[in-house]
Each structure stands twice: as C-alpha cells, then as structure tokens.
Amino acid sequence: MRNLLDLTLYELENELNPKFRAKQIYEWIYKKYANSFDDMTNLPKDMREKLSRNFHFEPLKCVRSETSSDKSIKYLFEAIDGSRIESVLLPMKEELTHEDGGIKRHARYTICVSSQVGCRMGCSFCLTAKGGLTRNLTPGEIVGQILWIKKANNIPYERRINIVYMGMGEPLDNLENVAKAVQILKENDGLAIAPRRQTISTSGLASQIKKLGEKNLGVLLAISLHATTDELRTKLMPINKAYNIEAVMQAVREFPVDMRKRVLFEYLVIKGLNDSIKDAKTLVKLLHGIKAKVNLIYFNPHEGSEYTRPDTKTMVEFQDYMSAHGVSCTIRQSKGLDISAACGQLKERSKEDGYERT
Ligand code: SAH
Ligand code: SF4
Q: For the Radical SAM core domain, which residue ranges apply (predicted)?
C-alpha cells in the first residue's frame, strides 16, 4: 500500500486515467476531509475500489493529545512502522478591521510540524537530540500531520494556516522530503498553504541552506543562531564545527528572500551564558546588512538539562537593546509549557509509555 499523501497533484495525475480524477481526489482528501475512498462519491465505483487496494491516506495515527492552558494542543503520532513524532497546534487570535471600521476576531492557526523521527544534530539544550536520529519522515508523513490536525479540529479548508518546521528534527537534514512536502502543501486543489506561510527552521547547515535557496520554493528561512561567538555556539550546537557563524551568515546573505519578508533569527536565551548586553551588541553587528528579524526564546528547561531559564527583565533589556539599534526583535511567548509542547521539549516517546493506538 502506498501513501497517497506522498504524491504531488502532477504525480497523481500521471497515475490516473483520466487525469482529471486527480483533482477530485485531492479535493476530497484535503478540502472535504474524506475518511475513505468510498466517501468520494463522484468517482466511479471501480476506480474507488482500485484506489483502495493500492493506496491509503492515513500515514499517522494519533496516540495521544494534550491541551495546554493556553489552548495549544500537542499531538503524539505513530507512523505505520511504530515511530513516534509530535506536532503542535498553536491557535493565534487575530483582530481584523473591516472596511466599515468594525473589528472582527478571526481564529488563526500555526502548526508546528516534525520533519524527522529524532535528530542527529546533538544540540546540548534540546530534548529531541537525546535519542539521536531514527529516520527521516516521508513527505506524506509531514503533510499527514497537518491534514490530521485540520481535520480533527474541524478547521475549514480555506482558513489560513501557518506552518513552522520547528518540531522534531532538522528539516534541512531531510531537505528533499521537506521540499516535496512544501510543494504538496501549496497545491491549490489541496491544502493551499502558500510557501510564504511556511517557515523552515535550521540549526545552520550552510550547504543545505544554499541548496534550499536554489530550489526557489519561496519559503521563509529561520536560523537557530543562539550564540554570538563560535566558542559558545560550538558548545551549544556541535554543527557549528562544520559550519561556523560566518559560514551560516554567508549562506543567509545569499538566500533568496521575498521582498516583503525577512530572515528570522531564533536566539535561545540561557541564563548567564548568552544573555548579556555584550551579546546583544555582537548580535547587532553580526546582523548588519541582513534583512533580519530576531526572535528571543526563553530556554525551556527539561529533565536533566544543565541550563536555566532567564528572567523576564534580562529578556526585555536584550530586546530593548536590539530595537534601539534598529533590529526588529520580539520575545517568543512560549506556548504549551505545561504540557511539554514548548520549543525543545518534543521527544520521541517510547512505546513503554503505554499509550495505545486509537
Ligand atoms: N532543528 C531545527 C528545527 C527544530 S528546533 C532547528 O534547530 O532550528 C525548533 C527551535 O526550538 C529551535 O530554534 C531550537 O533551537 C529551539 N529549542 C530547542 N531546544 C529548546 C529549549 N530547551 N528551549 C527553547 N527552545 C529550544
Ligand atoms: Fe535538532 Fe533542532 Fe534540536 Fe538541534 S535544536 S537537536 S537541530 S531539533
């Protein structure tokens, strides 16, 4: 059985006769949230039967979900081979002003997806790093996380969704599958999530950033920088030995960026390590000449971690310094802390946890 979610519309068209059936199937799956080929009533019965013998479109089962007090929901999925990954739905409220001046609230969502089962980058502050890499996710398993979450929450197909590749794994260590997922997600007859609403976050694999740029997908780039000196960055992120700060910055400078957008720099703030005004000053210098936006992230502690979360005063001072020196800078309001769904708290859970497939 093949996973239909692995196929772009073009690929599906090439599998079918007549081709136009592919669009209908895409709509059934991604817009009408069909549960089986039998639901696809405008397809001939023999075609439905043939499809169900060859394809499935449920690559993941949800094993568990947890809702945080801030309304974010963490999902634990199990793939067909038993691998487990996590994804997070982050509801964001947005106020829209209508032409008549009235204000209407609209639900807006960000979905944080995993790109690998585990990760081999070994960052010292990250829980996902602990178990190493098990395997890459397929394009259909990446798409499947989003489809499942939209479906389970009855999110209408046309509602705007932002995707961040900030769950488990290093997306650029699985570039081909991630790039294909971006293509499938953007399909107009499918989920129709424009690439400019998809942010790929990387620990800084410079050569892969270059390859991603060459693909010209139109996605946004986020760099997990976290340190302003190579000495500290190497301690936090071993990948810095292969690609140091200058190599990463050079790759960013060459990355094609949408005129209206900027490259996001994530800066994990750890108490006493990288939180001084001196660091802020060096960061401003590093970003000179780059259309950048900085997102400060509180270090989220997890069991066994040696680092400490900074206090709010330190974060705000750091942010103020950046803003005063012309760098757009926000502090990430980490969601899902109480359910361990916050940044760096996602981890493959072993089956011994005793959760059953549902
Ligand atoms: N591998 C990619 C994407 C997944 S990690 C990357 O590293 O960019 C997503 C973000 O969570 C990264 O910025 C990562 O540095 C951050 N993160 C990891 N561990 C964290 C922790 N304990 N507290 C807060 N953020 C963390
Ligand atoms: Fe991998 Fe990102 Fe965690 Fe580093 S921070 S170990 S790159 S998931």
A: 105-338
Q: Is 98 left (phi over 0), alpha (psi -120 to 50) or beta?
A: beta
Do the Cβ atoms of 257 and 212 come closer than 8 Å? no
Tokens 């929901």 sit at which residue?
73
pLDDT tens-digit readout, 107-149: 789 999 999 999 999 999 999 999 999 999 999 999 999 999 9
- By most ligand atoms within 8 Å of CB, the mutation choice from 112, 114, 119, 175 for ligand 2 is 119
User: For this structure, is 187 an active site residue?
Assistant: no
Per-residue confidence at 271, pLDDT binned at 50, 70, 90?
very high
Catalytic residue among 78, 141, 343, 348: 343
Segment 179-215, tens digit of pLDDT:
999 999 999 999 999 999 999 999 999 999 999 999 9
In this structure, which ligand is nearest to the CA of 268? 1
User: Which pair of tokens denotes residue 281?
Assistant: 């000053």
CA 226 to chain centre: 18
**CB of 112 closer than 6 angstroms to any ligand 2 atom:** no
Token pair recorded at residue 264 = 């996001």
- Total Cβ atoms within 10 A of residue 156: 9
Residue 169 is assigned to a ligand binding site: yes
Pocket of ligand 1 (CB under 6 A): 125-126, 166, 170, 201-203, 224, 266, 268, 297, 299-300, 343-344
Domains and CATH numbers, the chain: 1-55 (1.10.150.530), 59-339 (3.20.20.70)
* Atom 4 in ligand 2: residue holding the nearest Cα: 123
Distance CA 128, CA 116 (A): 10
Q: Which two tokens stand for residue 157?
A: 């197909």
